[in-house]
Structures are given as C-alpha cells and as structure tokens.
Design a protein that fits this description.
Elements lengths: L11 H15 L11 E6 L5 H12 L3 E6 L6 E2 L12 E2 H9 L4 E5 L7 H5 L2 H9 L4 E3 L7 H13 L7 E6 L9 H12 L3 E5 L8 H14 L2 E5 L10 E5 L10 H7 L18 E3 L12 H4 L6 H20 L13 H4 L1
Parallel strand pairs: 1-2, 1-5, 3-4, 5-6, 7-8, 7-10, 8-9, 10-11
Helix pairs in contact: 1-6, 1-11, 2-11, 3-5, 6-7, 6-11, 7-8
The structure holds phosphoric acid mono(formamide)ester (CP).
The site of phosphoric acid mono(formamide)ester has 9 residues, from α2.
C-alpha cells in the first residue's frame, strides 16, 4: 500500500479487513512493532483527535515520531513555476523529499484554503507532497477527503453491527463558519462502499461536488447500496444513522460574507431529539459546536456514537499503519485478507 489519499481508493475487501483489524486492536490485540522506522506527522491545520491518536498509534507500533506544525515551519509554496518573492520561503519540491529522507511514511494534514476553488479541488498541498515524496504519504485530512475519519467511522459501524443495508443520512447543519467538504465527501463514499442506503440531506445549493456524487453512486452500485439527495431536513426522521456535518456551498467558495447571507434562514438545520427516530444513532467527526450543529440532548444521550468514533481513530490508524509498514519492516501484515486482495 503506497500511501492513502481517500478511503474509497482501497478495495472494499481491504477496507473491511482494516476495519476488522481495528476492532481486534480495540479488544486488546498486540500491534506489530516497527523499531527503527520513523513516521512523519505534518500538521498544516489544527487538530486534537488526529494529532493525539497518530502520536499514540506511532508509540504502540514502536515508531520514532517526527512531528511538525505549520506555525513552526517555513511558509510553503506548492505552485509550479511560481516566483517566490512573497512570504513563502520553502517549496514543496524541496520540503517533501527532505522530509522523506528522515521518515518511512509521511502523514499530512492540509485543509481547504478557500482562496481558489480550483486549487482546493486539485488538493494541491496534499498532491504536492504525494508527488514529491519518496515515501508513502497518508492524508490526515486534505481539502477534499478525510480517509482516517472514514476508516474509524466504518469500524464504528461494523463494531456495532449496523446492518450494511441500514439507512445513513448525512445531514448538512448550520454553522457560523465556512467549512470544507472533506468529512462529508468521505462519509457518503464510505457508507456507499459499505453497501448502505445513503441519503445526502442539504439545502439547495449545498450539494457536494458532482464528481463526489458520481463516485458515491458508483460505489453504491458496486456494493448493492443506494445513494440519493434530498433538500428535506426531515429526511433524518427515518434514518438508522444520522451523521451531521457542516460544509460550505460550492457556489460561495471563499466568499464568507456571501455564504453567511445565504444561510441566514437555515439555522434550524440542527440535529435535535426530534430529528431522530427511536433507535437511530447519531454520528459526528468532532469537534462539534453544541446547540448549533446538534443539541446537548442528542450529544449527551444514548444515541450518540461520537466518543466511539473518536476512540476508533486510534485503532483504525494503528491498523492502517501496520498494514502500510508491513513491507519495509519485513513483517507480515497482521490483516486477514481475502486471497485476491493479498495477492
Ligand atoms: N475529527 C478530526 O479529525 O478531529 P481533529 O480535527 O481534532 O483532528
């Protein structure tokens, strides 16, 4: 496995095997050890869960850790042919190979920058590292995808034995800020690949990018699941899983004032006890704004899976790193892979 950009680039059998391994690790299985190997963590955007769980996963696997944050580094340029006479002092063309010479895998977090839709859609920061590194590069969330969150969420659904044909509604929620699409994109594709009946519920104008929608439909076709879009906030009421997330409209990308104006009337897109049917479960990647995105009563109640999701970040990432590093370390991957995937 040569790095990871989005979860759905992995074969469905491999995703299932990684989820199963995450569950074994959660139950106390001993992780493989990779003494002498090093993991690079590069955070160009804030994080609580990803930062802490990646550090802990590295420790469990015996990895040396090289950790950098954007504020402690030179400002990075990623564009080709740029005259670097502004504030960026370092180009990814140097930064990526330099870091590759110190570590055996490099994990990068780079949010959407909301300066230019085209460069965010090209995911230019992550792709710059992927292109110029000589070691596998794993996304810890990029402009478009959050594969580690999706793998942890997949493990959460599998551990709780949520039927593969259950209905998962990803509902847009009001938020005071303009947020990226990475978790929303990753959630619909993860659930579609799992074979679920996936519904994207959002106000008109907040639909995800057409290529993501096409991808979710393809994954649903392949898995026997389904994918549909509605502008009805009441769509959560017959869901088995209500996954809440806020994201900005593609029509007002980078236009914070325009986005705020457009969503003035949308504050009641919030998950409350009335949004959930009896027995439904609530998911969110965290961090979450209480009583804005979701009410206290849901977040603190028995329907909420958010703590399990966050805990599974550790197990899912340990499983992923184990599998990814198993080649260079000379260790066998601990995954139980079907023959066609292991070949
Ligand atoms: N869900 C998630 O990635 O959390 P952090 O941004 O805190 O890492």
């Amino acid at each position: 496995m040569n790095g990871l950009y989005k979860l759905s680039e992995l074969d469905a059998n491999l995703v299932e095997a990684l989820s199963n391994r995450a569950t074994e690790l959660r139950r106390g299985a001993t992780p493989a050890r990779y003494e002498g190997l090093a993991l690079g963590l590069l955070f160009l955007a804030p994080s609580l869960r990803t930062q802490a769980s990646m550090q802990r996963a590295a420790g469990l696997l015996g990895l040396d850790l090289v950790q950098l944050t954007g504020s402690s580094m030179w400002k990075l340029e990623t564009g080709d042919g740029v005259v670097m006479d502004s504030d960026a002092a370092e180009h990814v063309r140097e930064a990526a190979p330099v870091l590759s010479s110190y570590v055996d895998a490099l994990c990068v977090r780079s949010f959407a920058r909301f300066e230019d839709l085209a460069s965010d859609l090209a995911d230019d920061v992550f792709q710059g590292f992927a292109q110029h590194s000589s070691v596998p590069v794993v996304s810890m969330e990029s402009a478009l995808w959050h594969p580690l969150q999706a793998l942890a969420d997949r493990a959460t659904l599998d551990q709780l034995k949520v039927s593969t044909r259950a209905k998962l509604v990803l509902t847009w929620t009001w938020h005071p800020r303009s947020l990226p699409h990475a978790v929303a994109n990753s959630t619909v594709c993860m659930a579609a690949q799992r074979g679920m009946d996936v519904v994207l519920a959002c106000p008109k104008g907040w639909e995800l990018h057409e290529e993501v929608i096409a991808q979710a439909k393809l994954l649903a076709d392949a898995s026997g699941g389904s994918f549909e879009i509605t502008n009805d906030p009441g769509a959560t009421k017959d869901a088995d899983i209500v996954y809440a997330k806020s994201w900005c409209s593609l029509e007002s990308w980078g236009d914070t004032a325009g986005e705020s104006f457009k969503k003035l009337e949308l504050r009641d897109w919030q998950v409350t006890p009335d949004s959930l049917s009896a027995g439904a479960r609530f998911m969110h990647c965290l961090p979450v704004r209480r009583n804005v995105v979701v009410s206290d009563a849901v977040l603190d109640g028995p329907a909420s899976l958010v703590q399990r999701q966050a805990e599974n970040r550790l197990h899912a990432q340990t499983a992923l790193l184990e599998h990814m590093l198993s080649g260079p370390a000379g260790c066998e991957s601990p995954l139980q892979l079907p023959a066609e995937v292991g070949a």
